[in-house]
């Protein structure tokens, strides 16, 4: 096959592909055909930091290279919180939220979407520091309070989003209708 013939075939194929793209661009497309509203939980919280230290035994110290020998080893982590979401009196979410990262020493992230039928709904959110570990936490003014609550009745229209988020300045859960 000659070089000119290959160029002509390539140009014809290219013109065909461009024509198909042009025709398809005029077709209408609906990404989602739902009539639900969404209650969206989305926030980042610093959480309560706790530092746990322990003394290494002589055997553990002997296994370490000389430059890494420390009598006391400390690890820090963010204490877990319990997220409970109740919608119209029915518990929809009840889970533990742990700090991000392999050592759980990064901020806490909450991202949840709950689909709801249009109309009035009672939304209750509780974000609470877990168990007895809360007493051992260091008090840090920048940290998230040990208990956050949000309770409201909202009327959601079709395809509307109620955003529940954390306001660091007010140290409270707030809502925004989008």
Could you describe the 3D structure shown?
The protein is of the alpha+beta class and 178 residues long. It has helices spanning 3-24, 58-63, 133-136, and strands at 37-45, 49-55, 72-78, 81-87, 90-97, 108-116, 119-129, 147-156, 161-167, 172-177. A four-stranded mixed β-sheet has the order 6-1-9-10, with no helix packed on it. The longest helix has 22 residues, at 3-24. Mean pLDDT is 85; it is low at 134-138.
Show the helix and strand layout.
Blueprint: H1 3-24, E1 37-45, E2 49-55, H2 58-63, E3 72-78, E4 81-87, E5 90-97, E6 108-116, E7 119-129, H3 133-136, E8 147-156, E9 161-167, E10 172-177
Parallel strand pairs: 1-9
Antiparallel strand pairs: 1-6, 2-3, 4-5, 4-7, 7-8, 9-10
The proportion of residues forming helix, as a percent range, comes to 10-25%
Q: Termini separation (Å)?
A: 61 Å
- Give the structural class: alpha+beta
Question: Main β-sheet: number of strands, strand sense, barrel status?
Answer: 4 strands, mixed
Please tell me how large the radius of gyration is: 27 Å
The tally of beta strands, per DSSP, is 10
Mean pLDDT: 85
Which outline best applies?
flat
Low-confidence stretches: 134-138
Fraction of residues in β-strands: over 45%
How do the helices and strands follow one another from N- to C-terminus? HEEHEEEEEHEEE
Q: How many helices? A: 3
If strands are numbered along the chain, what order do they take across the biggest sheet?
6-1-9-10
